Amino acid sequence: MTGAGAGIGRACVFALSESGFTVVANDIDADACDKTVALAEDAGGSACAAVFDVSDEDSWRSTVLEVLRDLGPIAVLVNNAALKASTEPGDGGVLDMLLPTWDRILTVNLRGPMLGARAVLPSMLERGHGSIVMMSSISSVRSVPGLATAYTVAKAGLDGLTRTIAVTYGPGGIRCNALAPGLILADDMPPGPSSTSLSGQGLIREDGRTADVASVVSFLASDRSKFINGQTILVDGGISANLAGVTSRNRAGDA
Q1: Do the Cβ atoms of 178 and 133 come closer than 8 Å?
Q2: Active-site residue list
Q3: What is the CATH number of domain 7-238?
Q4: ∠ CA 201-204-245, rounded to 5°
């Protein structure tokens, strides 16, 4: 489980450990990773920390070898680690974007998941069974003008990577699916009309929370989803179903 130090990643560690998995929680931030592991164990789960940069192939190789040696076969890989446009300066429109930002985001957000899959696939194929879950984003199918070009491209690429792994290795017993969260609120944001309006944009009467995403990850990791492969599942409260800005009153013609 990569990117486990906070937010959706931490919620996924909790959900997977509650489902009976021993979770290897990865993050580049050692303190955050250790806190996730401690919280999971306090809740009765089983977890351990693995601190490394997901864009480094040697780290993937050594970590997977250690897990296979110490914990046994790897049944599930969840690729969640990612850099966000909101934390990486310079990810704007194509004309405004900084090339080092483009390179860094694609390296972590797309190369990293590819390396993770590359590292675990041999042992999964040897067993004839495995589930890989990619954390995509609503940004893979919806764009904001002038914002997050590198992030959007990386997440769209992740959807393609998901399909390619599924069709290539599905006959060997491998399932690879992605889920694309929409506007997910931080766990410490209080509920209320304003938060529901932000998260679901009025299409659903609930806030989108990290646990909502984690529950789908747990489902895709389990045999309950055994007939689902190569799919990107939107977990967005219905935002992607809405043609923004068009209503029955202002529609000029059929879209």
Answers
A1: yes
A2: 151
A3: 3.40.50.720
A4: 35
Prediction pTM value? 0.92
Query: What is the domain partition of the chain in residue ranges?
Result: 7-238
Specify which residues 174 forms β-bridges with. 130
Checking if the pLDDT of 254 tops 50, the result is: no
In whole angstroms, give the CA distance from residue 245 to residue 254: 14
- Phi and psi at 145, nearest 5°, equal -55, 130
> Token match 């003008």: residue?
145
CA distances from 106 to 51, 62, 101, 140, 153 (A): 20, 23, 8, 13, 8
pLDDT in tens, 43-92: 999 999 999 999 999 999 999 999 999 999 999 999 999 999 888 899 99
Report d(CA 255, CA 239) in Å as an integer.
17
